[in-house]
Amino acid sequence: MQLEWTIRLLTIMKLGEILPSPLCYVGKVVHELKSCEIVGLLRDIWAFMRKNVPDPTLFIRDSSTKKFTRNPDYCKVDPELTETLRLTILNNVEKLGYLYCKLFPVVNPPAVENGKETNGNR
């Protein structure tokens, strides 16, 4: 019962754009995890919520749809708060591996040639 309510709360927080990516996907993976892993993820979400109290000024109104969406300028998550999720997915890669590239995309570093950055063109 508690797991169901946890998933429901996390789903509502995602719909309300209170949790940014990748934290907003925790509700989709908790049913596959051990209780100690869930506790770690919920601690990170709680730490995020303490640092980022929901505030109406963090949302902007789309003039065409009249809906409010979270301002992307304020949707950054401290990487420290996503490390538990990253490691949990890696520890459960057989069940959750498909999510890793979606939640933690690889940003290609600039190529370095002879100590100087290049833009990939030769």
Strand neighbour order, sheet with most strands? 1-2
* C-alpha-based Rg, rounded: 18 Å
Low-confidence stretches: none
- The share of residues in helices is 40-55%
| Shape assignment | globular
Rounded to the nearest angstrom, the distance between the terminal CA atoms is 59 Å
Quickly count the helices: 5
Beta-strand portion reads 5-15%
Biggest sheet overview? 2 strands, antiparallel
| Helix-strand sequence | HHHEEHHEE
What number of domains? 1
Structure summary, number of beta strands:
4
Round the mean pLDDT to the nearest integer and report it.
86
Assembly type of the chains comes to: single chain
How would you classify the helix and strand content by structural class?
mainly alpha
